[in-house]
Amino acid sequence: MPPAPPPPVHLRLRVSLTQPHPLPLPSSRRLSCVTSGPATARHLSLRRGSRRRAPVRAARSEPAGAEGFDEELGRLLELLPGELRRSVEDHPELPALVEVVMDLGRPPLARFPSGDFLLSHRPISFDDLHQATAKVGDFGGDNRAGISRTLHRISAIRNRQGDIVGLTCRVGRAVPGSANLLQDLVKAGGSLLLIGPPGVGKTTVIREIARMLADDYDKRVMIVDTSNEIAGDGDIPHPGIGNARRLQVPNQEMQHKVLIEAVENHMPQAIVIDEIGTKLEAMAASTIAQRGIQLVASAHGVTIENLTMNPSLDMLVGGIQSVTLGDEEASRRRVQKTVLERKGPSTFAYAVEIVSKTELRVHRSLEATVDALLAGRMPNVEIRKLGSTGSVQQEVSVQKDQFRRDPYKIVSQFEVASLSNARTSLDSAFNLDSANGHIENSNVSEAGFNLYVYGGVLDIRGNCLASD
Fold it and tell me: By its UniProt entry, which Pfam families does this protein fall under (predicted)?
């Protein structure tokens, strides 16, 4: 009798983890965390008509080391003229404020997650802009400035003569627990690359990773802070980075030199850098990763495929080169004679695509992901989501290779080997301590069909073509 067919395997794994409690910070470094909803934070808005601004005045009487987010937000609102400041303070979504936009000759806007809010019908004047810029630090070559010991970012728009004609006042927040979805990768010690479009929260996550490495795992952490976005403006770093240390960058063109300086002068075990954007910075990051230092960095992009097509940043994923195959090899692979391949080892072990503040796509092997993309296959990926109750939900998606073969060819023993290899890659790609979570395996097969062949020929759909 022929051996019994192997049982079908459904390759889907769902994991539910309980969010770990963050370690308590010393009283001098405790922060008021603000998330996307006013119910989860201390509400700063004042009742209309009372015009009391108690949070700002009360915060000023507190010691400087105990500054909370309420005082930091008040210091940002002080940049606005009185009428605009009162209009923002009365808004019910004040704790979720994203940014305030002031452009010369246009009405000012406050941007919230729910949409834009018109602060006044009176257009912004030069006096309004001068009043705001006088209360912030110096603008650098990147037209960015900040408020000392806060995480807020003030970006300027200039005319052709160099005069400021617009300001974008972005609210900066330190959110403890924002990197809990990546805690296992940070603890593993491999280099980590974060990818995402502007405004998705890369800097917030990378700041919390720096604090986690320094405080929770007792590592020597150096932050290369190009625009003072990670540790805030001023000479004293923001408490949101914990015990991590910070190197400021005089101008953006020197960022790659400061990266090398951090390694040579300060003996770090981990280096954190935000927004790698040039080839020199990518080369410096590659050099650091080869010296046994854990590197955590971010780059603009939507997917890893964007980096493979970026000639300035492709070194971060190992570099891309064009290879000409021989006739026999091209025939064996069933591809054209000229193909793209990875040039060398990747700078980072892991890569994370930030979809939103509550959803991530994790690639546990960046090299395997790049190889799959260049070969025209879908890579293996973990989708991690933060539930409404704070629980971490993970789904491991294992994609089978897309082989170029006749779709009407009858399935052979190849399928059994493919499923076996996929299960092996799943076990190696996703390894969690059973004490940290509960893993549910599903062996329920998807809808299919059974073939019972006796003296006949069936096509791939099970229809009888011929019989004895």
Answer: Spore_III_AA (PF19568)
Exposed/middle/buried for residue 36 (C-beta within 10 Å: 0-12, 13-18, 19+): middle
pLDDT of 377 strictly over 80: yes
**b/e for 126-156, b at 16 or more Cβ within 10 A?**
eebbeebbeebeebbeeebbbbebbbbbbbb
Rounded Cα–Cα distance for residues 174 and 240 (Å): 5
Q: How do strand 221-225 and strand 320-324 relate by DSSP bridges?
A: unpaired
Q: If you write DSSP's letter for every residue of 40-101 in order, what string do you get?
A: GS------TTT---HHHHHHHTS-GGG--HHHHHHHHHTTS-HHHHHHHHT-TTGGG--EEE
What letters, b where the CB count within 10 A reaches 16 and e where it falls short, cover 290-314? eeebbbbbbbbbebbbebbebeebb
Helix, strand, or coil here: 235?
coil
C-alpha dihedral, 33 to 37 to 41 to 46, nearest 10°: 130
Residue 201: the pLDDT is 87
What is the predicted pLDDT for the residue at 459? 52
pLDDT above 70 for 287: yes
Helices (runs of H) and strands (runs of E) counted in the chain: 12, 21
Where would I find the beta strands (DSSP E) of 66-207?
A: 99-103, 109-112, 115-118, 144-146, 153-158, 164-170, 192-196
Count, residues in the chain: 468
**Closest C-alpha to 230, from 251, 216, 244:** 244
Identity of the amino acid at 367: E
pLDDT: which is higher, 40 or 454: 454
Pick 111 or 391 by higher pLDDT: 111
Q: How far apart are CA 68 and CA 403, in angstroms?
A: 56
Query: Which residues are paired to 298 by β-bridges?
Result: 194
Distance separating alpha carbons of residues 160 and 22, to the nearest angstrom: 49
Distance CA 18, CA 284 (A): 38
Chain centre distance of CA 331: 40
Contact 180, 211 (CB under 8 A): no
Q: How confident is the model at residue 87, as a pLDDT?
A: 93
**pTM above 0.70?**
no
How does the average pLDDT of the chain come out, rounded?
Answer: 76
Please identify which residue in the block is written with the tokens 């959803």.
Answer: 359
